[in-house]
Design brief:
heterodimer; A: mainly alpha; 9 helices; B: about 400 residues; alpha+beta; OB fold (Dihydrolipoamide Acetyltransferase, E2P); five-stranded mixed beta sheet; 13 helices; about 20% strand; globular
Chain lengths: ~260, ~400
């Protein structure tokens, strides 16, 4: 008889609120150039959201803004307009809108766009994430976890593994800002990540493990490229992690309750 | 507080096929049988107060629509013979007494949440000594100073099953159960936060219900009522009901008969303006005129100011995207009390995967157990509707 708050758009708006600190720090350091990039990606993602609203009656989502922000921060630089248009359209349409919009997608559209651009235009340079932007990811994670739209387990799992790798001597002094930004913008997407308690731990651990492995053995890759690859693979495996978590949960219950 | 009128009602989908044992105009003692179930003749429905039968309305196939009573204080109370039922070597006599006195209908069997058939042996019985629904009356206050009745009722429950009896209580208000010494009685102390105080949550945690192993749940006040019936032969007259909600100037708790007139209970307390009266809590209540079934609270809500008609485009958009996607959030997990993997469970229901639904423990749950999920997520179509259609489907498949 009475109705609560947490429908899809509330979650999307809370996610947007959570990434605000990151957006502000990034725009502050990037200046007009950053604003221009953000507006470009907002326009492209928004265009496709409107097209799908008109043609398929899919309500647009605020999550598209987070996608645009992630692309503006992480997409390759010095790419022409056309590659960026193609890449963004591919990611937004194929990874999100054709599934029925945010909430029904399997992969994060920003992750797919970045992977597409990475494979399609391997020679374009990846952006450097500066240190203050990396630190800004910490309030993002805090707000997101407190509001319940990001999972503490994913963040903790990733930080745990990366921390162990760092203690074992892996050099992350140059790459940690990109890892943090990728973690909060790409991996912590509530829809594209694992959805069970154990699955989320595994998801975070897998992302951290893949990122650490790429850092150690993939010497010519840029930091953002490593983050995107690890995020894409972790997100692809997320449903299997959920399956594992459910199987273990069922086995434990069977042992306890007979 | 006994209201002047009371009624026992049922919806068409409840499929409550009855045979009247009284006629309109008859004077009936409180606790005397007035209806019997056509499917199981042993299960009786009794008069909630000393009364005159005002109207019996039956639908097609003798399905009960409503039976209305007018209060007649002079009609007296019906006394049952409890000698046989009190002998501890004859559990059949105890069942007969509960069936004949209408107290049987206060038991609820899972899966599917029906009144148990008279021969059913439960794998476990859960006594709910707490109720965490918003504005619900605290059961431990309903049975204050009735330790003897509770103990006698618990002994009776122990005779109805070979399995364990779980007594769920509020951690901050423990019940005194020293009088009951049985290794089959388990105390479960729970933090009183919704939804942990729902029977479905506790059954799911401690003894999941399956088709072969049904589990019953019963309210603590009704257990005390069974104890009182065994001691005196009288069916309890009243239950503790809370009257609350945002449309009331003040909330109160009353002792009233089952099937009481809800308008009467909230009379004089309602704020001016349009309102709606629910039987049950604001989360899982149904709009009703009379106190329904096992409900112990009535909630009066303001009718929300109806917005002007949404723009046609907005309306078309929101209608086109059914079912609305559910985003996995901490709020969703909390709404399930962390009892099961929430998102896989919802996916199993939405996709009609009865097997996974069963394996994840869906058979222990009823609509009231997921009402909070509906509230939190604003899901459309509602999770409660999905759960009940899934349970109906499984029930139909199992019946074949």
């Amino acid at each position: 008889m009475i109705k609560g708050l947490w429908d899809r758009e509330t979650v999307a708006l809370m996610w947007l609120v959570a990434v605000f600190p990151l957006a502000i720090v990034w725009i502050h350091h990037g200046g007009l150039d950053a604003v221009g990039r953000l507006i470009f990606f907002l326009a492209v993602a928004g265009f496709w959201h409107v097209i799908f609203m008109l043609v398929r009656a899919q309500p647009p989502s605020w999550a598209g803004v987070v996608t645009a922000l992630a692309l503006a921060i992480l997409a390759q630089q010095e790419l022409g307009l056309v590659p960026l248009l193609i890449g963004t359209s591919f990611g937004v349409v194929i990874a999100e809108l054709v599934f029925g919009g945010w909430g029904r997608n399997v992969l994060n559209p920003a992750t797919v766009t970045l992977a597409f651009l990475g494979f399609g235009f391997p020679s374009a340079p990846w952006p450097d994430i500066i240190v203050p932007v990396g630190w800004a990811a910490i309030p993002v994670a805090l707000i997101g976890i407190l509001a319940g739209v990001m999972s503490l387990r994913i963040v903790a799992g990733a930080v745990l593994v990366l921390g162990i790798a760092w203690m074992m001597g892996l050099d992350m002094s140059e790459t940690y800002p990109a890892l943090l930004v990728g973690l909060v913008l790409l991996v912590c997407d509530p829809v594209a990540s694992a959805s069970t308690a154990l699955g989320r731990w595994l998801n975070g651990i897998l992302f951290g493990g893949l990122a650490a492995m790429f850092l150690a053995y993939w010497s010519e890759a840029a930091a953002v490229q490593i983050v995107v690859s690890a995020a894409l693979l972790a997100s692809l495996v997320a449903p299997i992690l959920d399956e594992i978590a459910i199987a273990l949960w069922l086995a434990r219950r069977r042992r306890r309750l007979g | 507080m006994i209201t002047e009128e009371a009624a026992i009602t049922a919806r068409a989908q409840d499929d409550l096929r009855v045979e009247p044992l009284v006629e309109e105009g008859n004077l009936v003692e409180q606790g005397a049988p007035v209806l019997e179930m056509r499917r199981h003749l042993a299960i009786k429905i009794v008069a909630p107060m000393p009364c005159r039968v005002a109207a019996i309305r039956l639908g097609p196939g003798h399905r009960l629509s409503s039976i209305l009573f007018f209060h007649e204080p002079g009609a007296g109370r019906h006394t049952y013979d409890t000698k046989l039922a009190n002998r501890s070597d004859d559990p059949g006599a105890l069942r007969d007494l509960l069936l004949a006195s209408g107290m049987w209908r206060l038991l609820r069997s899972r899966p599917f949440g029906q009144v148990p058939v008279p021969t059913q042996m439960p794998a476990a019985i859960f006594v709910m000594g707490l109720d965490t629904r918003p504005l619900a009356p605290a059961p431990h206050r309903a049975v204050a100073n009735r330790d003897d009745d509770v103990a006698r009722g618990l002994h009776a429950l122990l005779r109805l099953t070979d399995g364990p009896v779980y007594l769920c209580q509020d951690r901050s208000a423990p019940l005194s159960t020293a009088a009951v010494t049985s290794d089959r009685l388990h105390l479960v102390s729970i933090r009183a936060s919704h939804p942990l105080g729902l029977p479905g949550q506790q059954i799911h945690r401690h003894r999941p219900a399956t088709i072969d192993r049904p589990v019953w749940d019963v309210h603590l006040e009704d257990v005390a009522g069974i104890g009182a019936l065994l001691a005196t032969g009288l069916v309890p007259e009243t239950r503790l009901v809370s009257v609350g909600g945002p449309a009331l100037r003040e909330a109160r708790e009353v002792h009233c008969q089952p099937g009481a007139d809800l308008r009467h209970l909230s009379h004089g307390l309602v704020k001016p303006g349009p309102h709606v009266v629910l039987s049950g809590s604001a989360l899982d209540g149904r709009e009703a005129h009379w106190l329904l079934g096992r409900d112990r609270q009535t909630t009066v809500l303001e009718i929300p100011h109806r917005p002007a008609r949404p723009h046609w485009f907005q309306a078309a958009l929101s209608r086109a995207s059914r079912p609305k996607p559910l985003i996995p959030t901490a709020a969703l997990e909390q709404a399930f009390g962390g009892a099961l993997p929430a998102v896989p469970f919802l996916r199993a229901m939405a996709s009609g995967n009865a097997e996974l639904f069963t394996r994840l423990g869906g058979l222990s749950l009823l609509e009231e157990d997921v009402a909070l999920v509906d509230y939190v997520t604003r899901a459309e179509p509602g999770i409660t509707a999905m759960l009940s259609s899934m349970l109906d489907r499984i029930a139909a498949e199992e019946a074949v």
